[in-house]
Amino acid sequence: MKALYKKSFALTDRGADDLIRSSITVFFTYFINMLPAMLLMLFFDKTLLSTGRDNAVYYVVSIVIIAAVYVVLSLEYNSLFNATYRESENLRIDIARNISDLPLSYFSKHDLTDLAQTIMSDVATLEHALSHAIAKILGFAGFFVLISVMLLANNLKLGLCVISPIVVYFVLLLISKKVQTASFHKSYEKRRKNSDSFQEAIELQMEIQSFGMADDIKKKLYREVEEGEKIQISSEFVGVSIIGLAGLILYITHILVIVVGTILLANGEINILYFLGYLLAGIKIKEGAEANAMNLAELFVVDSAVKRINEIRSAERQGGEDKELSEFDIELKNVAFSYDDNTEVLEDISFTANQNEVTAIVGKSGCGKTSILRLVSRLYDVNGGEILISNEDIKNISTRTLFNKVSIVFQDVTLFDTSVLENIRIGKTGASDEEVKRAAKLANCEEFIEKLENGYDTLIGENGANLSGGERQRLSIARAFLKDAPIIILDEIVASLDVDNEKKIQESLNKLTKNKTVLIISHRLKSIQNVDKIVVIDNGRVESEGKHEDLLKTSKIYKDLIDKTALAENFVY
Question: What's residue 175's pLDDT?
Fold first, then answer.
């Protein structure tokens, strides 16, 4: 049962346990809610059948019922709402933990706004369903089965009059599930697309304003919101129409009980108390059925959110074990890779980047250089061949172990809206302030940090908006210094910087790469001419490798790159 709840409603272990408890509580709540009707039956028994009972019995029974209702409703509230809010917290933490374990390839195929919506909006949808619908449906289902058995056992004919219309009612709702779910899913997908459009409009404000597109984007967003409203209204109309039409069947319950009950009463098969009892039972069960029709509709609504959460949980993870790595030569053997199943980016790549050396990867744009760095750092996994570190295929090494041994400095630096100190500390979260400042000094960051209003405690804005490109890049290098990993990966880190910043960053890199295994990509070929090894990539293959002077003689592609670089540097407007 617990496993079924977890799968059906995307719950954690604790959430599934809480749902079982709340369903049981709701089950008893339905029975307790029948007690006032039973008290009324006692009253009818006295007044209609002249059964002699002291009035004190009614007072005592009334007090007991009030106390029982109070206790059960309190338990129901705690099990439905308090437990639900706790599960919302656990669920968001669980989803975030799952997302953190996903490989980079997952994020390249899924929209980040969509992931954020799953953590916030989908969990909120599930939260409401847990507190208002799911447990009540499950509790009512158990109550309905048991009360049906009791009613049928006492009088088969009247029992069928009460139960049959309700069974037909729920069967029709379940049959309509496909129609309702499809309608709700269409509305769900439209809301996600609208969220993505708004996110895009916010992130691209600079481009939108600079190209005079504000009015067009505004009209587009209004149009998408209106389309979303129409789809939402249509979705709600489908649900209400189906529930409303099916709801007419419930009123047959009263008609059947009255007609059949009157006949049985006239034939002397039952007394008036039986007749009234089944009529009251029909009224109470009908009320429960009507209330749970909306709950069932909400269950259909939550179906899309549950599928999305389960999709994240079931996404393929990168395997591997925690291992001790002692040597840090990186050997690529016949590596093949594609971002999808159709276009191969790398084909039969083989070379070795030795420890205590700097290996540069060069080639035309789109030849696969960055893909190699992503594979070495295991942000993606190879489709064929193998990459060895310490003579171990990195597919057999856990990403935790590998990431601890690799520092990556990207061309596009990601910074957080916090202080300079904390942004650098990301390289080693347990580092002391003194260690962070030492790393900043090695990366030549002190020069600009001292000019900031609050020095290391200065907040740098969203993604370092208050810093220049060169300053942001140096903070990234400071992180790498702080981490002090034996493998350094550098991806076009000076491509968009001016000469002054490039010089400062080059000085930082000369310190950072000592005694490391270094892989570097750079379009500025002058900066890599003195490295230990240059690997030339052409159309996803190794065209040649060696030192600068040798490649000028043996590699047509490398010489062509050098010549074009010289032409670009000498170009005058």
Answer: 77
